[in-house]
Specification:
alpha/beta
Length: about 280
């Protein structure tokens, strides 16, 4: 990855703006079909991981009136589950279209505890100075950002002492040393992707594969490197509580086989607590 400090300021600003604009554009295209286009987030394997993660967060939040900030809330993947548990939840997303879809799914009785904001995460960090949160969640967000390190530091500051910081469903830099295991991994991935494309074609759901180059910016570098992320969190006064590494695939069976039999790890979740 190119060092940010080695890039001229004008180039850095231009690239950052390009990434933001591409994320706005792509997520406007995905709109209400976002989760249908991404079954890797809703298959039975990932759903079990999601439910365990939500249960883990709730067991650590002692305040029943806890205020949770969901960054990159999308159409409500984490937001709605936590709202169901009775917490106050602020959902933030760059996409007005995604927020509109989520707003339609909020039960009327839960609306007093729900707040939705359309904003870029760094802009929101600058102007949201009035409140510290009991938990900050970043679900499938870091890989969309040009400078995710800065975002992590800024939002660690917004946590109360004892507050939770969750990084969820992020691409993990991995290295498969065994050529045999790597061949099996690639074969399973191709099969999984072929079935997915056929399903999307049957449902007449368009894919925007050529549009993800800038919007999924950190994938160009193989995903997120855990070592500097851990160091950054510890340097921000956080204690790492748990790290889950597993393989995400479009379908649950493929994900289970890749994770348990091939020991592939291309995705991670990380939970930390402010000391």
């Amino acid at each position: 990855m190119t060092s940010l400090s080695s890039m001229p300021v004008s180039d850095t600003d231009n690239l950052k703006e390009k990434i933001l604009e591409e994320n706005r554009r792509v997520h406007a295209l995905e709109d209400k079909l976002y989760l249908k286009r991404h079954p890797e987030q809703t298959n039975f394997f990932q759903t079990r991981i999601l439910e365990r993660t939500v249960d883990g967060i709730c067991s650590r939040l002692k305040n029943p009136d806890a205020h949770i900030l969901d960054l990159g809330c999308g159409t409500g993947y984490l937001f709605l589950r936590l709202l169901e548990r009775g917490y106050r939840v602020t959902g933030l997303d760059l996409s007005e279209e995604m927020i509109r879809v989520l707003d339609q799914d909020i039960p009327e009785e839960s609306r007093p505890r729900a707040r939705l904001v359309v904003s870029e995460v760094e802009e929101f960090a600058r102007r949201d100075r009035g409140e510290d949160y009991d938990a900050v969640l970043l679900s499938a967000l870091l890989h969309h950002l040009f400078d995710y390190e800065s975002v992590v530091r800024k939002y660690c500051e917004k946590l109360k002492p004892g507050g939770l910081f969750l990084v969820f469903f992020e691409p993990l830099k991995q290295e498969i040393v065994s050529p045999f295991r790597y061949a099996l991994h690639k074969s399973l991935a191709r099969l999984d992707e072929s079935i997915y494309r056929l399903e999307m074609k049957c449902w007449n759901i368009s894919l925007f594969e050529e549009d993800y180059h800038f919007s999924d910016y950190q994938r160009q570098f193989g995903g997120i490197d855990l070592v500097p992320l851990e160091e950054m969190l510890r340097g921000s006064g956080m204690e790492i509580l748990k790290i889950d590494k597993y393989c995400s695939r479009r379908y649950g069976l493929s994900a289970g086989v890749a994770t348990r039999l091939l020991a592939t790890q291309n995705t991670f979740n990380m939970l930390a607590e402010k000391t």
